[in-house]
Amino acid sequence: MKNIAVKLAIYAFVITVVWTLIEHTLGYNTSNHEVGQYTRILTALLYYYFIARAIWLKRKQQNGSLTFSQGFKTGATISILYGSLVTFWFAFYAEVINPQYQPTLLAFERSKLEAVHASPETIAIKMKQLEMSSGGSITSYLLLFAFMTIFGLVITLVATAILRRKNIAGEIKKVG
């Protein structure tokens, strides 16, 4: 596969699917949200790493040269592709494989809020926010896609700003 961004988006997606199934088997998305609240972060961090890696590999592929538009295009490709794939995956996971994900997550988060004696108003607000972001509706999955893509684009902007370089060899040929 020639396109680095597509290849790394697919790698990140496959790892996300496998990791989610491991979490499911271990109960991290059902009965052990105490651990799951931390393990779910790992695939997002891996996704952000793959964005920076794709941009770095693009620069390496071009003999150390990378324009801002080339870096942004690479990062945007991985962000949109991965965001789309994981949105469909998490919708399938939450609706078909583990329909108890949202109810058990809501119960876990409610118990945490009650343990710190949060007010009923605060609990209601947090539960509504969590319901909207944890699946179960088209809106929640659209939000998932939007946030995955937007955060990916932020990482893209930072990585591209850091990794962009002019083609030094080309500059020397122009001068000489």
Keywords, please?
mainly alpha; disordered C terminus; 176 residues
Low-confidence stretches: 172-176
Major sheet summary line:
none
The radius of gyration over CA amounts to: 20 Å
The helix-and-strand class reads: mainly alpha
Description:
This protein is mainly α and 176 residues long. Helix content is 82%, strand content 0%. It has seven helices and no strands. It has helices at residues 4-26, 33-61, 68-97, 101-115, 120-133, 138-163, 168-175. α4 (101-115) runs antiparallel to α5 (120-133). The longest helix is centred in the middle third of the chain and has 30 residues, at 68-97. The radius of gyration is 20 Å and the shape is elongated. The two termini are 37 Å apart.
In short:
The chain is built from seven helices and no strands. With 176 residues, it is an all-alpha fold.
Topology, element by element:
Elements: H1 4-26, H2 33-61, H3 68-97, H4 101-115, H5 120-133, H6 138-163, H7 168-175
Helix pairs in contact: 1-2, 1-3, 2-3, 2-6, 3-6, 4-5
